[in-house]
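User: I'm curious whether this sequence folds into something compact or stays loose and floppy. Could you predict its structure so I can see for myself?
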Amino acid sequence: MQPRSSAGEEPATVTFGSECNGGFADYAVTGSSDAIRVESGLSDVELASFPCAFSTAEGMIQRCRLGTESVLITGASGGVGSAAIQLAKRRGAHVTALTTAAKAEELRALGADQTLDRDAPLPGHGFDVVLDLVGGPRWPDLIDSLRNGGRYVTSGAIAGPIVELDLRTLYLRDLTLLGSTHQPANVFTDLVSYIEAGDIHPVLAATYPLAELRAAQSAFAGKTHVGKIGITVAD
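Assistant: Here's the prediction. I'll summarize afterward.
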């Protein structure tokens, strides 16, 4: 949930499990402006897999105005990365997913046009856009993989938040660097319209009852899955 900021105020982002408790609750409340109706035959746990991962990915894609271009997605087997594959393909982009060999086939089934091993060399000046959820020591390689005039957008740094940039690379190559956290109100309503149209689908690797949350977290930490791990609550 993301309350709208008043005129002159900085954008505010508030989410369950981060800025407020409620991510692992049987019941939770939110403001009516943050409750969006969705008409879908998907189950509750399938619908629950969309809000955080898909809205983060859609926010990144809208922030960089991705079109029918070449895009590299890092961390592509995670919840946000696998969502970004579907959402980028929906826009007609040519998607390259950075992943491991064990997960490559599943990502191609989601729509990736090709996959690269996460330790493999990246093509120089090969992409119009990089959607990055990883950061870390390979960050300069990601920048080098952008074509002149390319756009880089990040919403995560799971491999490390501190990177080094030669400013001459930024201005001589006319690159655009973008951060993406706050989402305009239309991002989620757009996402609901994609769900209702059947343009995107949930990627659930497994589900656990709330009482087995510890096991779910252990499975998540193992990083052997693709997509999301769902938690079910009693009816």
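Summary: The beta strands are 70-73, 94-99, 114-117, 127-132, 146-154, 176-179, 204-209, 228-232. DSSP finds eight helices and eight strands in the chain.
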